[in-house]
Design goal:
alpha/beta; Peroxisomal Thiolase, Chain A, domain 1; 9-stranded mixed beta sheet; two-stranded antiparallel sheet
Length: 506
């Protein structure tokens, strides 16, 4: 039964008062001060100021200037996203399901029939479409897992993303980059990816470079957090180039263990690049909050996503049966730290009241915790497109609508799981659809090996002019209707946040 108009009006008024309590209080105090000062004539105020000793006035001016100087020195600089770009694969890299099935049957000595059937069932229910792409190495039988193939893939996807971001920022050239951060989880050649970018774009000899590896799908937002720390204390006008990718060529698993077959089914080629700065000039987004939660101190979490060899010596990524519990624990802790920073006061008050009620009624009644509405804090939410189950369970846990998770689902359908770059493909989807407006707030969520969970929030400063990006030539076809899957299958494909979602629903 819906609430009456009077109840809705009272809720709206209470929300405005609570969320703006300090503002209302300040206005009331200012009004009282003005009311008292109104009784004093301007001539009396001027006479009192003129009677003060000049040394007092001089000291007051010096003290005010010193306090302002100290405030400016202690205040950390704001960080901005100037522009971003994504790799857009050509149709020749496309791998429809029929191609996957045919290739699997051409490798009977590597993968048995039962494993092929399992992988195909998983693929068909994964939420991926027929246009996702894999590198050249995957189109060979058997796949080319050589170092050269991996280097070729890295140069293809990374350089395309960097070219795209520089093409969008005509005022920023490679020589203007002060810091370079590149992340790729598994493949780490020598020289590293950062050196490859420096060599390709002839960056300055004094550029600061960092190469991150082993952090899984969360590495893109980890890089944003690292860039933020640098830019907050760097000289004004400092620019950071971040490149996020995952290289597949050398990581194709050719064994038969089901726990290690999942990456073959979900991961696809992709990369994204972004330029961050501590100057608002030409900025498109302002970075608001960054919260990272790491649970690697727990042994089960540390081994939850683990690269190792199977009993036949085939290297792959093993997913633990405790993956749901591990990620649920990390995400719940991340939300606990992130929520108070972004939620309006009314939502925080409702959470606090429900916690208090549960504590007071412990043992006497079952109290359901209030689930905060994050849509009061954000207009857009980008959930890492790690799989259909990931998106389903985050949607259920946060109480989001289908529209709220559309960008994540469509990114998974069109591009697959592109690891650390997926949230930028989702941001590009929102902009290509024309949904991003000035002052809109965006929440990005990612998680990866370790185990860790990351939340990053942005505020739109200037929507994109030409926003098609990686969605050019296909955005008009989206959103598409995804086939339904029954509850048992969905449980089998359950995401890493299931436990956290269940906690909120209790």
């Amino acid at each position: 039964m819906g609430s009456s108009p009077h109840v809705k009006f009272l809720m709206m008024v209470s929300r405005l008062v609570v969320d703006n309590f300090f503002g209302v209080f300040a206005v009331a105090v200012a009004a009282a001060v003005v009311g008292r000062a109104w009784l004093i004539r301007p001539e009396e105020i001027l006479d009192q100021m003129l009677t003060l000793p000049r040394v007092y006035v001089f000291l007051a001016v010096i003290l005010a200037a010193a306090l302002e100087k100290m405030r400016r020195m202690r205040r950390l600089r704001d960080v901005y996203l100037v522009e971003y770009g994504c790799f857009r694969p050509k149709p020749c890299y496309r791998t429809p399901f029929a191609t996957c099935l045919e290739h699997a049957h051409l490798m009977p000595y590597l993968v048995d029939e039962e494993s092929v059937a399992f992988a195909m069932r998983l693929l068909e229910r994964s939420g991926l479409g027929e246009e996702t792409c894999v590198p050249d190495a995957y189109h060979y039988m058997p796949p080319d897992r050589s170092l050269k193939a991996s280097r070729d893939e890295a140069e293809l996807v990374m350089f395309a993303a960097v070219d795209d971001v520089f093409a969008k920022t005509a005022v920023i050239k490679p020589a203007d980059i002060d810091v370079l951060i590149v992340n790729c989880s598994i493949f780490t050649p020598v020289p590293v990816f950062a050196d490859m970018v420096v060599n390709k774009y002839k960056l300055r000899s004094d550029v600061k470079i960092m190469n991150l590896s082993g952090m899984g799908c969360s590495a893109g937002l980890v890089s944003v957090g690292l860039a933020r720390k640098i830019l907050q204390v760097a000289p004004a006008g400092t620019r950071v180039l971040i490149v996020s990718t995952e290289i597949l060529s050398s990581q194709y698993y050719v064994g038969t263990e089901r726990a290690m077959l999942l990456p073959n089914c979900l991961f696809r080629m992709g990369a994204a690049a972004m330029i961050l700065s501590n100057s608002p000039s030409e900025a498109r987004f302002r970075l608001r909050r960054v919260v990272r939660t790491v649970t690697a101190a727990r042994d089960a979490d540390y081994r939850c996503v683990f690269q190792e060899e199977d009993d036949k010596g085939n290297t792959g990524i093993r997913l633990s049966k405790d993956l749901a519990t591990t990620a649920g624990y990390a995400l719940k802790n991340n939300i606990a730290a992130f929520g108070p920073l972004v939620l309006p006061a009314t939502e925080q008050l409702l959470v606090a009241l429900s916690l208090l009620k549960r504590r007071l009624l412990r043992g006497r009644a079952k109290v359901r915790l209030y689930r905060p509405d994050f849509r009061t804090a954000f207009e857009h939410i980008c959930i890492h497109a790690g799989g259909r189950g990931v998106i389903d369970e985050v949607q259920d846990g946060l109480g989001l609508s289908d529209d709220d998770v559309e960008a994540s689902r469509m990114t998974l359908h069109r591009f697959g799981n592109t690891s650390s770059s997926s949230v930028l493909y989702e941001l590009a989807y929102l902009e290509a659809k024309g949904r991003m407006k000035k002052d809109d707030r965006v929440w990005m969520i990612s998680f990866g090996a370790g185990f860790d969970c990351n939340s990053v929030s942005w505020e739109c400063v200037k929507p994109a002019g030409d926003a098609d990006g990686p969605w050019a030539e296909c955005i008009a076809r989206y959103p598409v209707q995804l086939p339904e899957i029954d509850k048992d299958i969905r449980t089998t494909l359950a995401s890493t946040v299931k436990v956290w979602g269940n906690e909120f629903r209790r």
